[in-house]
Amino acid sequence: MYKEGFGNIPNKDKVRNMLDEAFKKSPGEWIIHSHIIGKTSEKIARELGLDPEIAYAVGCLHDLGKGYGYRDMAHMMEGYRILRFEAYFYPARIALGHGFVTGEISSYHGKRNVSKRDEDFIIAYLKKREIDEYEKLIILLNNLIKGRYLGLDEREALRNIAKTPEREERLKILKGWQDDLEAKLENPIKTYLPRPRSYKFPYNLLRNEK
Description:
Shape: globular
């Protein structure tokens, strides 16, 4: 479907199809995380007056690269490539940028397991990026939620990364975003998460894998 100012955005059927196909290639908990981010983004967007269809699509597909076996920085680059190939340019942008809180590549916590060419591309992209409300929402939720709501501090602790001034600044920015968002919402962010239902997508996929 076409959205003015955002271009082609996959509808829910297409999003599910893309997640299904990716899960077949690389089954894992990543699909639960992606589903939760998508559904939570959709609910929050509706309350904020944003487009819930855009929020759902970019939320569900931000980690698409993980469904093709890629991890760390490589999963963002791969997700970007897959979505651009499908002509979903805005979701591709979110897939590429969701791991970077600031305009510096060093704001990413994982391994830089990409080629020098890809790294240079990401650096150039971040320099000109302007984070909009959808991207900010996905970045924030990605740092609050894993397979369930954790919160910024617990999510950061699980990464087991040494505290540095840069990491502290990153966390400060995210806390500011959270405060700003929750000031606009009727309830705390964690209340917008969907209930897990083992018999429904995508929980049934993991159950069938066991």
